[in-house]
Amino acid sequence: MVTSKEKSLVVMQLSGGNDYLNTVIPYGDDEYYDFRKTVHIAQDSVLPIDSTYGFNPHLGPIKRLFDEGKVAVINGIGYDNPNRSHFRSMDIWHTALPDEIGTEGWLGRVIREIDPKGENVLTGVNFGRGLPRALGVRGVPVASVGNLETYGLFTDIEDEETRNLALRAFAHMYGGVQGKDPVLDFLGQTGTDALKGADILRTAPQQYSSTIEYASNPISQSLRSVAQVLFADLGTRVFYTQHGSFDTHSGELISHAKLWDEVSSGIGDFYDDLKEHGREDEVIILVFSEFGRRIKDNGSGTDHGSGGVAFIIGSEIKGGMYGQYPSIKEADQLEGDLRFNNDFRSTYSTIIESWFGMDAIPIVNGSFEKFDFVSK
Questions:
Q1: Is residue 3 part of a domain?
Q2: What is the pTM of this model?
Q3: Nearest to residue 368, comparing CAs of 169, 83, 74, 135?
């Protein structure tokens, strides 16, 4: 159990490469419409931030939070020598190593710093299949949950005595090999951790009560699950989830709108849920994608580009525009793409040091200038 006021982070990965230009739109710049002949947002539809920039109309709940001073927009985020492969670029974001192949995820290192002895198998929880590289560090337990309502081991066995026998057999199978073989040792510990985490997490939905009605789409339901685990006070400090695909090579205007309707409404509901439970000052949300899209559309969508946008959301965030919006002038482009102008590790470093109070250097593999978007 944790006391209140423990600080937690929710990370939302927009998989596939979110179109920055159609998310935070330079609607006051005529060149945007020159380059985006078809795949653009009309000026009269934009939710204005100022006379030059505004939000996509499908970011209404995020715009509401922005107007309340709770959203930091991180412009031009990326890294040197951008890679336009989904897998490699996401790997760079996950490991904070743009120039080499990393073996540890930055959030796994954060979890290890929070719980160096691995005493709580639920310090980090991923909502989704598999384990994102960002959370992967050898010896750091992380639970990965597909559906919290049905999560657990042998939950389809209704008879409690039969289920307990099955669980004991499972525990013996995974727990009886310690010290004999390092690989089996590792697998045994992983299995034991999964066993512990599963039965603890099963209790979270039963304790949850809220007037907030989340939508039925996957990202909203994942955020509802985050709220359930957070409010159950299980000691979880790092939550991870993802949504997509934002790989909008064709039919972008329809698919991008739907995706942002889902993400934005989910975030709005999650924040309202936090507020209803008096927990809004304990959580911040990081929203990121592996890269942006090309400046020119392809007639129906947009192709892989560079330079992107991230959002940091929460009541303890000093809202506003951070970093410079990259120029879309042809002379300033990087092979037809936006040039990044701030390293993503600056955002990571700010979260690690200003939110969690840790030393960021060993976690992000270097020293980077920090923003001031976290309230003191």
A1: no
A2: 0.89
A3: 74
Question: How many Cα atoms occupy the beta-carbon half-sphere of 81 within 13 Å?
Answer: 6
Residues near 206 by beta carbon (within 8 Å), at least 6 away in sequence: none
Place of tokens 């010290």: 179
Query: 170 is in which domain, residue-wise?
Result: 152-201
**Is residue 375 in a domain?**
no
Sign of CA dihedral 184, 187, 193, 199: negative
Q: What is the mean pLDDT of each run of 10 residues along the chain (376 residues)?
A: 72 98 98 98 98 98 98 96 90 93 94 94 90 91 81 49 52 50 44 61 91 97 97 96 96 98 98 98 98 97 96 98 97 94 97 98 97 92
Does one domain contain both 195 and 336?
no
Q: Could you give the CA distance from residue 272 to residue 130 in angstroms, rounded to a whole number?
A: 29
Same domain, 53 and 176: no
Distance between CA atoms of 277 and 296, rounded to whole angstroms?
45
Contact 271, 247 (CB under 8 A): no
Taking alpha carbons only, the member of 95, 122, 276, 126 closest to residue 200 is 122
What pLDDT, on a 0 to 100 scale, did the predictor assign at position 158? 54
Whether residue 162 sits in one domain with residue 118: no
The first and second tokens of residue 287, run together, are 């929203």
